[in-house]
Amino acid sequence: MKITRTATKLGALAVVAAFALAGCSGPSADGGGGETGPVSQDEIDEALDTPTELTFWTWVPDIQNEVDLFEEKYPNIKVTVENVGQGLPHYQKLRSAIEAGEGAPDVAQIEYQYIASFVLNNSLLDLRPYGADELAGDYVDWAWKQVAPDEAVWGIPQDVGPMGNLYREDILSQAGITEPPGTWEEYAAAAQSVKDATGSYISNVGATQAGQMIGFFWQAGAKPFAYDGKETVGINVNSDEAKAVADYWTDLISRDLISTDVDFNDQWYQGLANGKYAGWLTAAWGPVFLQGTAEGTSGLWRAAPLPQWEEGENVSGNWGGSSDAVLASSENPIAAAELAKFINHDEESALMLATEQFLYPPQQSVLDDPAFLEQESEFYGGQQVNKLFAEISETVDTDFQWLPFMDYVYSSYEETMGSVIADKGDISAALDTWQDQLVSYAEDQGFTVE
Amino acid sequence: MTSAPALTAERATVPPPKHHTSTARRRQNRAAYLFILPFFVVFIAMLVVPLAYSGYLSLFESRLIGGQVFAGLANYARALTDPAFLGSLGRAGLFFVIQVPIMLGLSLLFALALDSNRARGSKAIRLLIFMPYAVPAVVATLMWGYLYGPDFGPIAQVVRALGGATPEFLTRESILGAMMNIVTWEFVGYNMIIMYAALRSIPAELYEAAEIDGAGQFRVAWSVKIPSIRPAILLTVIFSIIGTFQLFAEPSLLNTIAGDAVSNSILPNYYAYNVAFLNQELNYAAALAFLLGIVIAVTSYVVQLSTERRERKERADS
Amino acid sequence: MTSIDARAAVPVEEVAAPGRRPRAYDPQRRRSVLLTVLLWICVLYFVLPLWWLVVSTTKDNSGLFSTFGLWFGGNFALIENLQTLFTLRDGIFLRWIANTILYSVVSALGATVLSAMAGYAFAKYDFPGRKALFSITLGAIMIPLTALALPTYLLFASAGLTDTPWAIIIPSLVNPFGVYLMRVYATDAVPDSIIEAARVDGAGENRIFWGVGMRLLGPGLVTVFLFSLVGTWNNYFLPLIMLNTSDLYPLTVGLAQIQSAATAGGGSQALFSTVITGSFVSIIPLIVAFLFLQRYWQSGLATGSVKG
Asked: Across the interface, do B15 and C195 touch by the CB < 8 Å criterion?
């Protein structure tokens, strides 16, 4: 860094400091969401031919490979990939940078449930003028609905997590269970037999894992959250549907048939590897994740759809998955939008995400690709796991919404639900506490709560 | 904060001014200002300005809908009735009455033991006890997280091998204790070094006389050594207060290890951080941080005052 | 946002108290077996966690969870672990080490010089406002970091300095406690008579400080430097907030990041043994520095006690 430049910056710092004292708040990001006419192909070509630098924040490992494809195609665009953290730290950084009006990336990975919170303060660019609405048909419906709840398109779907049931065939068969439980009732009975016969838990419900619980709600048809894109939210986490789900788990947990270890830490990994848990109710990204975690149990696992609440039903929920969104503050919106589209739409790139980063695809092109679907996994005894999840993906309820402050929703879940689940307490009652906290937060924040 | 701790150090010797003409004096003043200038430039830019800005922010209320509005002292009023904040202060208070005495007690014992020079290898002992200080809090917490593990942690392994029940360190009830242990482990050696250095500088005549009078080691330690290093002890107490209220890395990393046990409001500094970054209530967080600073200042001041009073009383008694 | 980890300070002033004489070594003192044994048992508490760390760096992921924690076992995977660590994301770990060294050495140097100048001025000049300014400096020790984190971030962002090394270095230059220490240290270490003599010889105040003062402050400088160094080296909060580019991370933030990658799902790898190996590697430099400079900082303390 050159001295003079630094000196200038320091000077600027002093000036800003004076401003702060004088009572001016920092600059805040605005723009975004505004109506602009469609961008013409000429403009796009011109933008892509102009030497441009883009920053892309994502935590997908080795996504550089897909970015390389993009740079190969558009040699004038230089993309810097940054991993600023995974999940919450990532969003905290993003919010800080937006708040500061400086340092935000052009493109950022954003999980579906967080999109609304960035829409709320106009931080995202509506991608319709950049041709994103033409892509609608290329993605599974419910995933598209997540990025385009109303008219605007706030991101391009990158991956999804329709939920299924991964289980240890060997442990279940020791308990005399040859077919994966089709209903939750059967699942409860199976949990008892597995515990009696082998001492294993049929699965673990992470005490602090809101994503999984919300996935169960999703499957049960509960609509805990609603948001109109403006100032009105709906909060209904203690609805009858949600309470039915909660009561189900309260029962199994209190009978010590389901463990409640915090997931994704070392203890839990070992629980999967050593048979403490005979299964995992997880999302489509789970199968590959498990392969890396429980290598020693290769060949013993199988995948099945989630058990159903009603016999003969076939529905699932979603847990996880992300989109790539363009920040409203980007100075190169055309190139940035093109990057977000390319990564998640270009056939080669999308296939690569699915087969090398093992992100479960929302793209129809990949879901129709036999090379992807018919992959047989040794870890799952030769089962075509991708195909199974492609079928499950069709059964996810399309109309699930989020609140524009999911950071708080999750942290409040940890506070109100986490401790109750860990203590094998009454989860339904905890839902009421959670509901109260969320409502009072929303009201404090100036939302109209319906 | 002009009444901030004078600690013990008002003994600067100022050159007697009588030899100087006022020109010389002025020149010296100018030199002095030039010497403190660089420090104060950075000090103002990095401490005073952000602090003032933060104080300014704390007077507003920001909402996700509706933006910022002037709120006067509403944030402060809210903090004083916020059970999460008060709870976090309470737990920090527990730290202060349990962990700090244990830690400093150990430091003092070690310092006295080493100072007595009766143990073999005391130099090595001193260094080994000090070593954890060189370990970043991030690493220390990660490490203890593994050590505490109920299934694979070595502590649990040993206890089970001895036939005991698996000890639970990472539950909601015990997490505070687990954290206290980490902090103790990190800082006993550091505080010990402060006290040890102070002990080494006690003039030998002081307690040789006592020894000749037939006083035993413990008596000498109690009535000569400890009183002589009281300023050093006070210093460690004050630093421990400040440190306790500012703990951040420990709860934040333990939260990744045992999320169900570490509540967002377990300790005040961590709570303020979460309020700012999770709840997105920057203004409220600024008010919390301000209150926290006041609590720290008041506690330190009270501690200092009570020691001084005791000292005065003792002097009067003798 | 001070760079001192509030507990990072050196007790120079206690040692440097005037009028005290060092105690002569007393060779007739008896060694106590009981005390020796007790102390060494206590030492175990401080050393065993580090021993666990050393042992664990030699294990692979499965060894970590299947063997006794305090002894070697399973595959000897130290070399592999180091390889994984240093090849992770194109060798970013080396980068983090270099960053950490850069940030902590530069800030420690700067903080030491600033503290020495200010401390010397407070000790040796009776200028108007001295007392008030000194009290303000001390009061600053109590400001909680979070009070400043966000405003500082916003200020730096407006100046375009977030996500640069300056965002770590500049705040770390403020070390109020260093000023306090240097003041107390200078009071005794730089006798007024020497200053007076130099003035009589016609030396300017500046020359007196840089030529005479700094030399006499030597051991105090080393101690303030070393402990400022630790403060920045171990700092997690500030870089966590300020930096977005992983190429700029110091070790603490980098390690926390691979740890969180290890514990969060979604296409990531379980890097437990890498995190552990990284933790171990990251503490070696400081421990070596303390051991290596042992004579220095301990003699710094000892010299302090000889002065009077």
From this structure: yes
